[in-house]
Amino acid sequence: MNISVKDAKELLDDLVRRAQAGEHVVLTVDGKPVAEIGPHTIQKAEGALFGSLPRVGAFKDKELWIAPDFDELGPEWDEYIK
Asked: What pTM was estimated for this model as a whole?
């Protein structure tokens, strides 16, 4: 949804409700995008987003397969592990 800053002033409560529901609203000045209102996401200090991802138990009902040689290094690593 795009809306002018002028119109957004009158509709701020509605725009915040839309953002809470997951919608992104683009604010415009003279028809050009200048800002965005959207749902808040939690960020790690390094800047990686993880707010929308479940962490604990995320793979509880998923079947995972790990190759038997997962932790074996190939011969190209020999000079690094001396």
From this structure: 0.47
User: Does residue 37 belong to any structural domain of this protein?
Assistant: yes
Residue 54, CB half-sphere, CA atoms under 13 Å: how many? 6
Q: Is residue 77 part of a domain?
A: no
In-domain check, residue 67: no
pLDDT of residue 29: 93
50 close to 44: Cβ distance less than 8 angstroms: yes
DSSP per residue over 11-54, as a string?
THHHHHHHHHTT--EEEEETTEEEEEE-----B-TT--B-TTS-
Three-class SS state of 3: strand
